[in-house]
Amino acid sequence: MLPRPFPGNRLPLGGVCAVLVGVFYLATIRDGQDWPDDFSQYIQHALNIAEGAPYATTGYLYNPHNPGIGPRTYPPGFPLLLAPVIKAFGLDFRPMKVLVVGFFVGALLMIAALFRGDLPPPYLAALVLALGLNPFFWEFKDQVLSDIPFLFFVLLSLYLFTRASGADGSGRRATMLAVLAGAAAYVSYATRVVGIVLVPCFIAHDLIRTRRIGRQTVLAGGAFVALAGAQYLLWVRDSSYFDPFTGGVAGIGHNIVAYLRSFSELWENGFSDALRKAAFLAASALAAVGYARSLRRHVAVVQLFPWLYLAPVIAWPSFQGIRFLIPIIPFYFYYGLLGIRETDAAVERRWGRKHLVLATLLAGVLVSYAGRYSALSFGPPAEGIAKRESAQLFEFVRDSTAQTDVLVFSRPRVLALFTGRRVSGGYRPSDPCELWRYLSEIGAAYLVTGPEPDVWNADAVYLRGFVSRFEPEFRPVMANADFGVYRILGNPCEPSGVPPVH
After folding, report:
1. 39 lies in which domain range?
2. pTM
3. Which end of the chain has fewer CB atoms at under 10 Å, N or C?
4. Are residues 243 and 364 both part of a single domain?
């Protein structure tokens, strides 16, 4: 029998806080979806599953010159979760967002379960509230993306492995927990490929603590390999995930600085940038104190996972912003609470005041959050697929192009989803003839500009300049405030290999 995440029959304070956060999120779901188009590929995969179509048939034409747009296919974990929702409700984004919110509440409950042995109830409740009410997560809940389900499955795997490691190594319970930990690690991997770091995390845990790989880790790793191998052999596999590395890894130093800057967005307050930086530095100092305190007791998977996860993220050639840091945010807050507890203990010994530091800092955090919320819109995104201009683009492409036509657009996957056409992304070569050659290779009939400048999009800026430079080679067939659709008439690089001077 699995150990219950919470002792007794009553949901403890941290769990109650997680449920209340979920109620707040559900009550404030916003309509619409903004332009970064990862969501559309997940939805198309889910549609294929729901309709029994081939998984990889998405209409998205992968551009090997611009792998940063996205791989040919995404892992099947999140589409499998979306498929029954889409089967029941169609392309209604609100039920999909409800699914994401459900996984976020599940992640908060897993956080309360994973850390309840290290934090007393007031600190555990503060951890759940500080995470759940953070404006970044509140905004992110409206994104139909795999990041929040991935966070849940990572936490579930770590929780199960922790329980397996603490159980009798030869008992049935330990065996079941270890196998389930490996299965949860596989589901993490099937949701986002970087979940593969969980297995090295288990191995490192054993080697550091006992200098050998234990039975539980062998079972967890075996379950992971069996399930991942079955997926690879029988269903979804795609090597294009590693195409971004053809040019080498990222500038490590540059990425570290960029991710530190993006991490500080957790402390946006709506008023003062200086206060944001000060809050980030103070919280990071407390997290460092808490991490050092935890190392004095023992080394566990919760101490190893953040570093093993960050390694491939920092090495990834394209910077992905705070979204890629979501799996380590709970650990950052957890170690910060450990640091606060250490400081609170010193204050209590000196002045006899219990939880004084916790109450003071939590009040400051809530004031900061309130400031940020006051600057946010509770309505749909100002830009995105629900705008009138976007709807006009989708309607024009559906009604005025042939099903066999190939288009090029800076957000290819969303155009493919909403029009049923084959669409590729462009890229930004220094020699424009290279782009002309690519357009010829894929038989592109139309080029679409936008959305920009309201939505900053370097690929869209390049395509707009490309059309302006070779204006005689394009015939405008549709335009509005955000988009232009151009029929491609010829290729000026074909005769001589040198574009004409206009």
Report:
1. 13-374
2. 0.92
3. N
4. yes
